[in-house]
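Good day; I would like, with your permission, to put a structural problem before you. A protein sequence and the structure tokens that stand for its backbone fold form the material at issue. Thank you for your consideration; the sequence and its tokens are set out here:
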Amino acid sequence: MKAPYNFKSQLRLGQDGEEILDNFFYQWYSEIRFASASEENRGIDRIFFNGQDRKTVQYKTDFRAKETGNAYVETISRSDKVVGGWAYTSEAQWLIYFVYPSEIYCISMDRLRKDLPRLERICRTVTVPNQGYFGAGLIVPLEFLRGISKAILEVKK
């Protein structure tokens, strides 16, 4: 049996990815604002500004996708409270999916959601045990995410 998901260690890894992404996107945006608590509850991590242009963004950093060739797209956040995953509930306009250490997929959340019914039919669903509940998501080939990305960017070290 898999060990339960360790929220604290995963949060720290996610924060490391967010820092890399913030630094990377500053080359195109004059301001990147952290989301408020209310915005975070709605699945928004950052708001990018460039003049009058404003984009709401959800960041996801995946440290295993490069080796597996697959992304994890969360469809159930908490089984005990029947809470939908970020793929369904995020109110962000854009998903920034960071395949650590270098590939960034910029995907319209509307586009991803449009494809979810098909993905649920063709992709494997996995559960992620936590303490007292589980999350679940689809194992989506990176090739699919590449195909629906508005842009694919590369972080250079």
